[in-house]
Amino acid sequence: MNTFHLDELELAREPDGHGYLDVLSSDRLSVGYAIWPAGVSDRQQPHAEDEVYHVVQGRATIQVAEDEMPVRAGSVIYVAAGVEHHFHSIEEELRVVVFWAPPHRRTGGV
């Protein structure tokens, strides 16, 4: 068993305050934790993996392909591999648990 507490995780932060940490990985799934401060731009590119985002704190809008949806604590969003997506209009610091399948092999920002 692997466990973690979000409030105890130390994330390396970029100059704009965005942070990401790979939390765990298995043969079929990986989990990360991401933070975007209010007002920043989410610069992520489509990934080779399916993703599920679980918003644990904050308010923003997510765009997935041509669709947009406001998100807040409790929102769960599925994004298929290869689909353009990003958070924008981040009104309150956004804290998100990210589930990846197959496991994410980090090569750039989330």
> What percent strand?
over 45%
**Can you tell me the overall shape?**
globular
Strand tally is 7
Rg calc: 13 Å
Counting helices, strands and paired strands, the structural category is mainly beta
Helix percent reads under 10%
**What assembly state would you assign to the polypeptide chains in this entry?**
single chain
Biggest β-sheet: count, sense, barrel? 7 strands, antiparallel
Distance between the termini: 26 Å
Provide the residue-averaged pLDDT: 93
Unreliable parts: none
Q: What is the chain-wise order of helices and strands?
A: EEEEEEE
Tally the helices: 0
Salient structural properties:
110 residues, mainly beta, 0% helix, Cupin_2, Cupin domain-containing protein, RmlC_Cupin_sf, RmlC-like_jellyroll
In short:
InterPro entries: Cupin_2, RmlC-like_jellyroll, RmlC_Cupin_sf. The chain has about 110 residues and is mostly beta strands.
Explain what this protein looks like in three dimensions:
InterPro entries: Cupin_2 (IPR013096), RmlC-like_jellyroll (IPR014710), RmlC_Cupin_sf (IPR011051). Pfam families: Cupin_2. The protein has 110 residues and is mainly β. It is 0% helix and 53% strand. The protein contains no helices and seven strands. Strands 1, 2, 3, 4, 5, 6 and 7 form a seven-stranded antiparallel sheet that branches. The radius of gyration is 13 Å and the shape is globular. The relative contact order is 0.30.
